[in-house]
Amino acid sequence: MDNRTFIEKFNDVGNVLTPDQMKEAFEKEAKKVSDKIIEYVDEGIDINTFDKEAEIAKFEDCEAPLWQIVVRLYTSPEKTKGGLYLTAKTREDEQYKTIVGLVVKISPGSYKDSRYKDTGPACKVGDWVVIARHSGLRMKYNGLPIFCTKEDGIELIVKDPRSIER
Q1: Which residue from 4, 48, 131, 165 has the highest number of Cβ atoms inside 10 Å of its Cβ?
Q2: Rg, C-alpha atoms of the chain
Q3: Residue 74 burial (CB < 10 Å; 0-12/13-18/19+)?
Q4: pLDDT (tens digit per residue) in 128-164
Q5: Contacts of 77 (CB under 8 A, 6+ apart)
Q6: Residue 148 to residue 136: CA distance in whole angstroms
Q7: Residue 158 falls in which region: left (phi positive, over 0), alpha (psi -120 to 50) or beta
Q8: Strands (E) located in 114-165
Q9: Mean of the pLDDT values across residues 89-110?
Q10: If you average pLDDT over each of 13-27, 58-72, 73-87, which comes out highest?
Q11: How much is the pLDDT for 154?
């Protein structure tokens, strides 16, 4: 079996590819490759299908330094109340507009200073929280979308993240 690409085979006979032929050849090769790659993309937590303890366990080897809180981002349902299906891109964009998520890690230094003497911690691991959009850093940890914020970045604790709308 000949594993050479279309371009390699074409160039073997001394021909020169036009820009359109080159584009077509690259698209064919890209399709072959993309058909072989199956990539799992984690877009956050879907409240309908997740296991809270399993989500928290994914962060056992993660250490939040100083006064940081690590929040695993919530994903809105794929299907709206009206029956429309949202694209993955729309759902990803929504994650970062309204920052709602599950607290999965709290640093040992959080809520230790005198400001919290009378009130205690604002949240605990396993709480659903709302965070100010610009109060921290958005990133992925082992491919999982998270938000890191300081201990005072928690705006609200909610029982159900679906109750929060922008």
Answers
A1: 131
A2: 23
A3: buried
A4: 999 987 888 888 888 888 899 998 899 999 998 878 7
A5: 46, 47, 48, 86, 162
A6: 5
A7: beta
A8: 128-131, 136-141, 144-150, 154-158
A9: 80
A10: 58-72
A11: 92
Dist. CA 47–CA 50, nearest whole Å: 6
3-state secondary structure (DSSP) of residue 97: helix
Mean pLDDT lowest for which of 11-15, 28-32, 45-49, 97-101?
Answer: 11-15
- What pTM does this model have? 0.66
Distance of CA 110 to the CA centre of its chain: 24
Residue in this structure with the two tokens 């590819």, named with its chain if needed: 17
Could you count the other beta carbons within 10 Å of the beta carbon of residue 78?
A: 16
Q: How long a stretch of residues is the chain? A: 166
DSSP state of 106: E
Residue 158 · residue 128 · CB < 8 Å: yes
The span from the CA of 78 to the CA of 82, in Å, is 11
Sign of CA dihedral 128, 57, 68, 113: positive
